[in-house]
């Protein structure tokens, strides 16, 4: 796939790294050369190659679906030959990548059937190393395929930045790729467009295989496909034979060999400026291993077998990982530093540890999972429209996009009313969605600095932060209520409005969103509240009485240092995460220890189960491995969990 051409339709925030469309790949079909066509035919062929993505209209700011879900359009990610890609955000704040195909580009029944087949195949797949299909829907002008967003770009971007990749890292990549391909083949799916640009890094740096625009299902083991399709540098020789030879699962094995060679050497083995030269080299398997870019003999052996001219001589997907090459140094995971440089000490990983890492990676990639006996079925009923104007049958929409945990994000428009805006507070709220990225970057920098961190870099203000001391999740009816350690009571309502009642005061504050001016804080009197706020004040009082009567505080009282609202919360089985308007991140772990990260990731606070609070520079805790005097159970592990959670938020923010 050719790289997407990034053309932002709106400025990107500094915390958003999804500036390239590496999550979506357009359909790319390799056509026969035009040299033997008459002039008129050649001209028509050239016209066909014009990008149909140009027909794709920019989606409206809010895309409404027929199943009742609304998605807010975010940043433009990029485009390919047939589609454009945009970020989309649902009501919970979750960010996705939306592959957007113009209906005007679907000119005949064959093209329509191919698109619906792609949706049907991708929807049916569920594997840890395959980009997750979320939903599909349409409006009058576009069809949208909603996918998991992978924020760390693709193997192609990694290779461009690195020039070459070390053998230990490629071993790890190959296991995850083989796991995904084995799963596809077990369901009789041939990908047919495996390449570095179609394999992406998720937030945890695991590889995810995407783009099923050329994928096809073989109805039986001995059946074959005959369409000439793929990407020139990766196309298998039997594909070029067209109807004379046909092709099957072995084309994906060939592509694995191309990717392995490209990562280790720096470019694909048959690369040339002229596509016809590439095809001739492929047909003769004409390539070599450069002497100035040495790779191990066992790596050469595997590549040579994968790139066998005769498909039957290539190893099966189950045989690949049995090669001697995989017994070399093997890391436990891919680290983010790999995106820009080679991690240190990879070659020093012991044989015993490498064996453990190899086994664990195979397990995580589903290598040991029994062959799936339920192949993908493309039914005629799945590919038929139900209405003349509609394109997507109801059967193609999974209708299961609810999050596993609840996340309330008041980033949508509040109720319309006339208010006086506080410029300072509004500006602070606008900056909040950059704080995730800044905090993550600072935590990551301090973690890498380790023991070399100087005392001068630790010179930060370490006062105890404002914390959430009590909370009640009643979002199934009203919202999420919380009490701060300064005794202010707040409710994050389900309608995205937030109200904060100040302790020992007759004043209350509302946090509102105005379409043109952004976030604002509005102050009112509890004795003469606006009509629309009376009911919400009653709910705040109800929660206040409940918490004071039934809940214990998790921290000691503090005087009010600043006005702080809860911005968003996330609940998982291991913790609840609070994001505050002042940029603080509070994590309440299930073992009753609480940790707060403040000052843009420079300061850490621990609240013990007995409510004692200790605040220190994060650098000092990282250097010592724990808090002095009162040890925190699994302290460094908890900090890693916090860093990764904030990282995920940084990559999910769209506006």
TrEMBL record:
Which source organism?
Spathaspora passalidarum (strain NRRL Y-27907 / 11-Y1)
Protein kinase domain ranges (all copies): 71-326
List where the protein spans the membrane. none
Q: Which family is annotated?
A: Belongs to the protein kinase superfamily. Ser/Thr protein kinase family. CDC5/Polo subfamily.
**GO MF terms held by the record:** ATP binding; centromeric DNA binding; phosphoprotein binding; protein serine/threonine kinase activity
In this protein, which residues make up the domain named POLO box? 467-549, 565-651
Q: Which domain of life is it from?
A: Eukaryota
**Comp. bias (Polar residues):** 10-26
Report the EC code(s) recorded for this entry: 2.7.11.21
GO terms classed as biological process: exit from mitosis; filamentous growth; G2/M transition of mitotic cell cycle; homologous chromosome orientation in meiotic metaphase I; intracellular signal transduction; meiotic centromere clustering; meiotic centromeric cohesion protection in anaphase I; meiotic spindle assembly
User: What Gene Ontology cellular component terms go with this record?
Assistant: cellular bud neck; cytoplasm; kinetochore; meiotic spindle pole; meiotic spindle pole body; mitotic spindle midzone; mitotic spindle pole body; nucleolar peripheral inclusion body
Q: Where does ATP bind?
A: 103
What this protein is called in its record is Serine/threonine-protein kinase
**Kinase among keywords:** yes
